[in-house]
Write a structure and sequence with these properties.
Helices cover 41% and strands 18% of the residues. The chain contains six helices and four strands, in the order H-H-H-H-H-E-E-E-E-H. It has a four-stranded antiparallel sheet, covered by helices on one side. Strand 3 and strand 4 form a beta hairpin. The radius of gyration is 25 Å and the shape is extended.
């Protein structure tokens, strides 16, 4: 009886250890990145929060056709390298580099119901795809007339063709 109880305890302990090792930011990020790299959006969604799943659904709709099939065929598990992990309570950042790049990219994760999930917002996704942040406070709208201007202060359009 004692041997059975000991064996059962060991198996139960191994089960908990194996389950908990899958729930670390680095492991979750690695699985997510491998799935995204292979354009396997169904698999990638398993490692994301709901908002990120919606973004992946949009990405999935654009990744159809011959080019997507070629990208899937070229994908490999060593196309990226995780460089570091920063964990802070229920939030984490996993940094990685693409195979042919020196640029380090951060992937945000958060703990939801005790489980680490990738959390991508629209701005972060655009920035990582080569877009830029738009911050109205930096004067990007300098050429736009103020709404409070009087008609005399409003810039007037000029003809681009000289008068004869």
């Amino acid at each position: 009886m004692r041997k059975i109880l000991l064996t059962f305890s060991l198996l139960l302990g191994l089960f908990f250890v194996s389950c908990s090792s899958d729930n670390k930011p680095k492991v979750v990020a690695e699985k997510f990145l491998k799935a995204i790299n292979k354009l396997d959006f169904a698999e990638a969604k398993k490692y994301c929060d709901k908002d990120s799943q919606e973004l992946l659904s949009i990405m999935e709709s654009f990744s159809k056709g011959e080019d997507a099939e070629k990208a899937k065929a070229k994908a490999s598990d060593d196309d990226f390298t995780i460089t570091k992990v920063e964990e802070d309570g229920d939030k984490a950042k996993v940094y990685y580099k693409a195979k042919d790049s020196d640029k380090e990219i951060a992937l945000d994760l958060k703990k939801v119901d005790g489980k680490w999930l990738v959390s991508i917002n629209k701005e972060q996704g655009a920035k990582e795809q080569g877009g830029h942040d738009h911050d109205d406070s930096e004067g990007d709208d300098m050429n736009m007339p103020e709404e409070d201007m009087s008609p005399e202060e409003t810039p007037q359009a000029q003809d681009s063709i000289p008068a004869a």
